[in-house]
Amino acid sequence: MLSQRMQNLNPYVPGEQPKDREYIKINANENPYPPSPKVVKAIEEFVHNNPNKLTVYPDPDSLQLHKDIADMLNATGGVLCRANIEGDKVTPDPKDKIPFTVTPDMIYTGNGSDEVLSFVFYAFFDSDRPLITPEHSYSFYPVYCGFYGIPRMPVSMNDDWTLKTSDMCELAVKNNSSIIFANPNAPTSLGLTRQEIKQMLDASPKDRVFVVDEAYCDFGGESAIPLLKDYKNLLIVRTFSKSFCGAGLRSGFIVANPELVNAVTTVKNSLNHFPMDAITQVASCAAVKDAAYYAECAKKVVATRTDFIEFLKNKGWQVNDSQTNFVFIRKDGVDGKKAYEYIKQQGILVRRFDTKGIEEYLRITIGTDEQMAKLKSIMENL
Ligand SMILES: *Cc1c(COP(=O)(O)O)cnc(C)c1O
User: Fold this and answer.
1) Which of 30, 85, 119, 258 registers the highest number of CB atoms within 10 A of its CB?
2) Is the CB of 137 under 6 A from ligand 1?
3) Closest residue (by CA) to atom 12 of ligand 1?
């Protein structure tokens, strides 16, 4: 009964969401803080005041949301943890300021960045050439390669988990291929500077789409958005799931030049004209309009991260620098799987992978100070 296509599927395994007991959940890089009260209010008011809007289809083009996202990027520079907050206004750190105005026609929104990425794979990657990715990056990329029948060319990484950017670009040129990676990368938590991304763009095919997944950029990365003016083949993916405390909303977006945005829109309109429901659109608009709140949350996460990394280093763990809301760690003499299980028994869920090369590592999401204090007391004995 199954189609041929079905046999190529190798589904993503997300961080556990167990129902058997209440765990402290720091295994899926969710934000430990609640959404802005303004988001809650916007949802309540929408349902209360406009119940009939649930009867009719939502705006398929999410025009208001595209405008609000563009405004937020211009106001914050796309890195919340570095944005300056004055009351409910935010201004970008000079380092992040975008040297042009992001316009709504440069934004595409969808049902979580996973869906957005799926449409990107469909629109720009072909089965006749390999897609270049780092060996370890977001584990959904190989899943989509399987789904769409796109060959993948994983490129090994340096011993310190930095990317072999020259190798990636050389392979991209040789195969006239696209490149995709997360920046900062997951699960390694390390980021490339904008200058490094620019060098990669210069060294890779101009007629192939180059995708940078900025799911974690708000926690300290350098956004590639300022490069969009000079690189028409650059496409940036972002999500509300991490820095916008909204994994349950299912909201993600693209920032790219309108030509690429239009191509992804064509895919959407050929598959599901209305991927974003009306409530998610309203909630997402309210979220980006309250960037000050989320910048505050990102700053708190960064402070907790600094403290936790210091603890880990004191305890002899090897810790990558982190520009994300998680850390990627191992310790000589500690078995990754056993450590994970020990921590789980004590009521805290962290993430580990069976993937070859990173089996001994734990990926731990930065929670609240309280949650991390509990974890620290458990890890004292590891
Ligand atoms: C979490 C994550 C996503 C997925 O985000 P959703 O918007 O929740 O689908 C995409 N890319 C990376 C690198 C992520 O870590």
Assistant:
1) 119
2) no
3) 215
